[in-house]
Amino acid sequence: MAFPILTAQEAAELINHDDNVGFSGFTASGSPKVVPEALAARAEKLHAEGKPFKINIFTGASTNRWADGALANANAINRRTPYQNTPDLRKRINCHDAHYFDLHLSELAQKFRYGFYGDLDVAILEVAEVMDNGEVVLGTGVGNVPTFVSRAKKVILELNEVLPKTLYGLHDIYLPLDPPHRREIPIFKPSDRIGCPTVKIDPEKIVAVVHSKRYDGIKGFTALDDTTLQIGANVCGFLISELRAGRLPKSFLPIQSGVGNVANAVLFGLGDAEEIPQFEMYTEVIQDAVIELMKMGKCKFGSTCSLTLSDATEAEVLGNLEFFRDKLVCRPAEISNNPEVIRRLGVIAMNTALEADIFGNINSTHVVGTKMMNGIGGSGDFTRNGYLSIFSCPSVTKGGVISNIVPMVSHVDHSEHSVDIIVTEQGVADLRGKDPVQRAYEIINNCAHPAYRPLLLEYLKFGKGGQTPHSLEAAFAFHVAFKESGDMSKVDWSRYGF
Fold it and tell me: Least enclosed by CB within 10 Å: which of 98, 142, 170, 399?
């Protein structure tokens, strides 16, 4: 079947104001590039004519500067979920120009199928190959594509010439049944394949094929500093101690790792640690560090939703797929992040925090409790269901004027009930089996920066009794001090009657 070959501009004309639009990919990997960019230009033109144009965007996770970035800059986003990390979109969200509702990444596909968010008007997919029967080979990220194409009225394909047809076989596309007919997901080890290598699309839905030629545009991470390296060393030291104590099997367990420099530091630390055996990953994102570990032979296999690689590493992997083919599989987000599978495999969950409080609650999304940073992502999927849940962050940021260990987090994404271990460059706090006061001393003494420990210990004494001895008057005193003076260490307990 011959599908219409359109320009990006022509394809953008097929999308209307207030349409629900699903994007392929997970992070910038696999996200469409040229059609969203053309759509942003169309929105700017219509806005200049005094006409409304905004769309509702559903994705796998974040996208890229050509999608979220360009559309946010054009003020063309009305509603957005489940995760984002683009500065222009973040600004729109925090000033309410865009309506963002945060969501666990494993949940979007099923909630869309349940009908919670209305119909899907258009799905825009980046693909490596289009077959005459409507089957496509996806690119480096899957996201929620199987659900989007099953629900979409129209499908637009971006055929990216950068992506080789040899990507065929990298993906494992599986769509679970919905309740009351849902069955077990038969993944018993990270390398198990249970689906198809392609996505099957009703050919009648495909309204455009648009040619593109762009890498994902992901920059390499900055050089690891002493703080991130020490955090990585502390996480590795903790895992080695668990192996020695027999609380981890000697064969180890699959690892999930979040994104960013701290996550990369942890992964490189695992690679360097001789007592850590070869391991597999069951995760949502594979970054450059994992590719290096595979080349070293330390990481045997990686199950993921996306290959979130710098352009240089992406080119290396795409050019050497024969080496990586038996070491990688890309799955839909509701499978890569599925609570059932995570619990069955015993995944060690390692994620990052913006701040942690002395009782073990984690804020991973909101700066000073109000401004959205990125979103919860998949951290909740893994944290609540993993064999171990580990959160890491520096003890201080911005030269020490912000303590990331606070009396009470300004926003709760992960409650004390879901957090086993907190790690900073200062040390490791093991919260397992401890009551709130015991957790507080563990976190203050092992994870807080020495400059803030006396202040946090003083706060603990101010508590009004009860199992969790908070002072309601002073719980956010660190945040208030930062807002007023720009320095949390300038907190004045006397203004709270202490």
Answer: 399
Q: Is the pLDDT of residue 35 over 90?
A: yes
Torsion, CA 338, CA 344, CA 347, CA 352, rounded to 10? 40
Cα–Cα distance between 269 and 275 in angstroms, integer? Answer: 11
Q: What is the pLDDT of residues 440-452, one digit of tens each?
A: 999 999 999 999 9
Long-range contacts of 73-80 (CB under 8 A, 24+ apart): 73/40, 74/40, 74/41, 74/43, 74/44, 74/47, 75/43, 75/47, 76/39, 76/40, 76/43, 76/44, 78/18, 78/54, 80/56
For the domain covering 8-212, report its CATH number.
3.40.1080.10
CATH number of 226-495: 3.40.1080.10
pLDDT of residue 381: 97
Structure tokens at 229: 């390296």
Distance CA(156)–CA(152), nearest Å, equals: 10
Task: Write down the pLDDT at residue 135.
Answer: 97
CA 430/CA 410 separation, integer angstroms = 22
Domain range summary for the chain, segments of one domain joined by +: 8-212, 226-495
Catalytic residues: 284
Q: Are β-strands 20-23 and 55-58 bridged in parallel, bridged antiparallel, or unpaired? A: parallel
How far is 93 from 78, CA to CA, in rounded Å?
10
CA gap 257, 349 in Å, rounded: 6
Model pLDDT, residue 1: 57
Is residue 431 within 8 A of residue 360, CB to CB? The reply is: yes
